[in-house]
Amino acid sequence: MSVSTIDIKVKKVEKSRINQLDPNNIQFGKLYSDHMLVADYEDGEWKQAEIVPFENLNLSPATTFMHYGQAIFEGVKAYRSPNGEISVFRPHDNWKRMNRSAERMAMPDVPEELFMEGIRKLVEIDSNWVPEQDGTALYIRPFMIAVDEFIGVRPAEKFKFIIITSPAGPYYSKPVSIYVQDQYVRAFPGGIGFTKAAGNYGMSMYPTMKIRQMGFDQILWTDGFEHKYVQEIGTMNVFFIIGDKAVTPDLNQDLILEGVTRDSVITLLREKGITVEERPISIDEIEAAYKAGELKEAFGTGTAASIAPIAKLTYHDDQMALPPVEQWEVTNWLMKTLADIRYGRSTDTHGWRFKV
Ligand code: COI
User: Which end of the chain is more exposed for a tag (fewer CB within 10 A), N or C?
Assistant: First the structure.
């Protein structure tokens, strides 16, 4: 795939802020690299993309996305291999997903070259921001916002596509405690659950705040009709190891985000000969499996968290505590196998690593 035919202008910082990065204390989303990419869409086309010093945006208070949420984003990561080589994990899949979000939110497609070469060049320029410790990466956040200066409600005509990057450590420091949500809803058929639209995250803040006050880390979202079928946990896809099979909600009905980590996990499991079922899963089935001793492991997947083991699920008054994670065969194998591919410690047989 050729991605280098696009011309991206570059204006570099006079002085890098890299000395602000403490390699031994990298927190998620706290510190941003020296540069960012910005491209404007106007008059039906994308204008010249530029890589410029990371800086604040100058926007009118009447800017559309601030009022009506026409805003979408992606999450991608760049990893440093032991030999110093840097590669981005499956960015092409994020590009495709970004455009699915864009279509649903009445926003323009981001051209493949702008997305791919934009990421490549930005990461190349800020390559000293890609950390090297195990469990760390450079988190890449491409996003698009509607920037008409107009507070009438209508699909916007002007947009900004921006990419920022941020060194990231592990998202969760320990296995997560999950509350099965039976009041608030994340996604409905025909809605925007399958997109990475800002509103999907905004609406989750209140229910998440509530369950955090109760001592839980994340929500297991259920369907809006019966609160019976599970959807996602927090901002992640969810997997259950029941007996010798892996089970995860299917992507039908536009409810579930088509996670790149989700797809990688399904691919690796199937290659190992483990049956993966993508289908509706009810909370009753999970409870029954737990009671029968068949619920062996459970985890969330996402770019930020990678694979996040679930320590406990709470559904009404029932607590489903899983065995200690050290004893989990499938999840531990997956975490190692995926990390080895991402960090270039094993052969990339799938073509998942996009070299910078
Ligand atoms: C990701 O895994 O990239 C996510 O979507 C989580 C993010 C909202 C922090």
Answer: N
